Input
Amino acid sequence: MGRLLCIGPIELSGRGESVGIVVLSLRHEHSLTMSLPLQGQVALVAGAGKRLGQAVALRLAEEGANVVVHYRSSRAEAQDTVKEIEKIGRRAVAIGANLGEVVEIKRLFDEAGRHFGRLDILVNSAANFLRGSMVSTTEEIWDAALGTNLRAPFFCAQAAAPLLRRTQGTIINFADTGGLLGWTGYIPHSVSKAGVVMLTKVLAKALAPEVRVNAIAPGTITMEGDPTEWENDFIKLAPLRRTGKPADITESVVFLAQSKFITGQVLVVDGGRSLSQ
Ligand SMILES: NC(=O)c1ccc[n+]([C@@H]2O[C@H](COP(=O)([O-])OP(=O)(O)OC[C@H]3O[C@@H](n4cnc5c(N)ncnc54)[C@H](OP(=O)(O)O)[C@@H]3O)[C@@H](O)[C@H]2O)c1
Output
């Protein structure tokens, strides 16, 4: 929601008559009068129907970007996200695709490119979070974890690269502290996210100098409805003694989107969790 700004009384007639109070949405007034950092840019956020992806999509819109809101099954939520972005004064479109299928990934970027005619920022937020220990990991769990969390970001980058090269754009991947520490209850997940760290480095080299590629490795970021034990377990281990909030992540996305001399880096946003094993 925009904060409200009251201006007035103001003179409209030029004859000394002042007319009431004018109330503007600060956000809209802002977009009318000054250029925002991402004004005119287009971002595609994968997995933006809800949770962190949705928060990132809204934050990028607040910074001036038009947004492609990608979803798989959260169609209604993605359409709500589009409406929220339009309220901010930006343009948005929801496009569905199962990122487990490379053909779907290609269609997603074709449609996005046709809709907005450019792409500046790709945020690979879509993921799953599957349990899998030495004993319980099956072939299906392994393939699903690696397929969504690692294979898909690579093929998204491949499909986006021609568009991003044209705009000197950027890719922001989502790793995870599990990919740095290695969680024995989540072996395929940890391996997939460790892969995202290497994917970020190798893509940064492969797409330079036109396209910058970085990653964020969040610790536990709690949102409404998350199990309370996630928060309690994390707080015990994180030096900053709290879980993260979506804003902690969205600020990092905005920072990396604008940091023109940073590429191939992983920004760990985890309250210090990864400092303690
Ligand atoms: N939340 C945390 O505490 C935390 C911590 C560390 C790292 N991260 C990372 O941060 C990112 C966002 O986290 P999150 O908790 O917001 O994620 P999430 O809710 O687990 O997943 C985000 C979205 O990914 C989409 N998705 C899953 N499989 C897909 C597929 N095959 N094709 C297309 N879309 C697919 C889903 O879209 P639909 O709903 O439309 O199906 C889902 O809404 C993830 O990469 C996650 O690993 C999060």
Notes: The first strand starts at residue 4 and ends at 7. Residues 1-31 have pLDDT under 50 and may be disordered.
